[in-house]
Aldo/keto reductase (Nocardia lasii), 297 residues
Amino acid sequence: MRRAALGPEQWEVSAQGLGCMRMGLARKPTDFADAADVIGHALDRGVTFLDTAQMYGDGYNESLVGRAVRGRRDEVQLCTKFGVIVHPDGTWTARGDAAFVRQSCDANLERLDVDVIDLYYLHRRDPRVPIEESVGAMADLVAAGKVRYLGLSEVTGDELRAAHAVHPITAVQSQWSLFSRGIEKVVPVCAELGVGVVPFAPRGTMKRVAVDGTGAQLPTERAAFSAGLGSLARKYDATPGQIALAWLHQRARVWNVTVVPIPGTTRADHLDENIAALDIVLDDDDLSRLDGPPASA
């Protein structure tokens, strides 16, 4: 497994990570064994950059991940997020005041059963609280030895600049794929500041791409793009998802920024498929083809 250097600190992590959200959102008897199997396989393959969050199953996912890495903690770069409160009706609000930052971190550490969190993200910015206050409280956690590096999720370029002025930001986590490129408005700021980019949902929408969530037909160019993606997959003897990951890995060269995708899976064979995408190098013509019009804003 190749390594990558995230952030101004040049923190070394695996070049591709593992999103753990789908391993447990509701309590099921098989959750822990299944999660432990996949995470153990990931570590054996060198995928050591693991991502979870308080929001996933109201902390249950963190507990699963923490148990799964017990005994192998020194191999793992453990990342989690705070700042989203899910209500009983399924709606959620963001909270980022200093008191909540401190309270959340202690709860994250307890659920993960670790002494320190490697990368701690503000999951969503609280619009009622200056981002400088949230990040200032997070910086206090670094000073206290509870957190090593700081991250932000789904922020604007201006918010990233303001946060980075308070304390160095190591990574920004946002959705980025062939089908979702809105973060490209923020990537130039990441490159300027030396902040890494950690894309979630990096494979994008690979199934039923001709129909959107309402059942309406997608624009003709989206369907044509999807057909072209399938053609490229055949050319490289790969799956469309692997081509999507390969494209995203090569964004690092295009944008001069470190990119560490975190595809999620609950199966070891899918993990192996994602790892294999690291060996696919798309030529310039094919990269140009993929830089077409299918992305959402």
Observations:
- Residues 206-220 have pLDDT under 50 and may be disordered.
